[in-house]
Amino acid sequence: MPVVFLPFHDSTKGTTLFLGHYNPTLKNVANWAYYQGTGSYSNDPTRQNTAFFEASTDESGWAWFILWHNGTTSVGLVRNQAIATKKKTASCASTKKFFAESLKLTPNLLELIGSGTRVTEVKSASDYSYNASSYSFPFARVVGDAGCFIDPFFSSGVHLAMTSGLSAGTTIAASIRGDGGEHSRRCRRDHRGAMAYE
Fold first, then answer.
1. Under a CB-based contact definition with an 8 Å cutoff, are residues 61 and 121 in contact?
2. Residues 47, 96: Cα–Cα separation, whole Å
3. Strand partners, 130
4. 136-195 residue pLDDT tens
5. What are the distances in angstroms from CA 60 to CA 12, 57, 63, 137, 153?
6. pTM for the complete prediction?
7. Does the pLDDT value for residue 104 go beyond 80?
8. How far is residue 148's CA from residue 197's CA, in Å, rounded to a whole number?
9. Burial class (CB in 10 A: 0-12, 13-18, 19+), 31
10. CB-neighbour burial class of residue 143 (10 A; exposed 0-12, middle 13-18, buried 19+)
């Protein structure tokens, strides 16, 4: 009977057991900080806490503006890592100054920040879009973040996790029933995993 391989991450050491590769077309870097005293996307009470997203005017990435329940606002930028590195190197700016300069490329978002104050340091993360080289191995299935992960701000990650769980469950149920061989079940799981990621 197959086992299910779930993601392993030790947050105390920052280590992850990783069986895949990063997707070069999705190799992005994100910079973000938290603000207080910002405006909101709409004065309509039913839309007041709606998140706002904007593409940068130089088309190098996109930005988010997300109001939290406690009055704090998350503001961040996502760019292709090579483009961001080139721009930052050319500007010789600190991360904080580069973040502030980059926000100018999103004028509508900058207007929403208004007179808000940044209350945290600027944080960074990169290389967070990846997929496994295989979604199964003999009598085991790879599901959830262990199989693939795409930018966390949209529901594609939820879709991928649910699809991988369903696909793994289907092949495990087939194994329990004795339907087909393990090789064909693995091929089916690998095919479904790759299709969902693409």
1. no
2. 30
3. 22, 149
4. 777 777 777 777 777 655 556 677 777 777 877 877 787 777 777 666 655 655 555 555
5. 33, 8, 10, 39, 18
6. 0.62
7. yes
8. 7
9. buried
10. buried
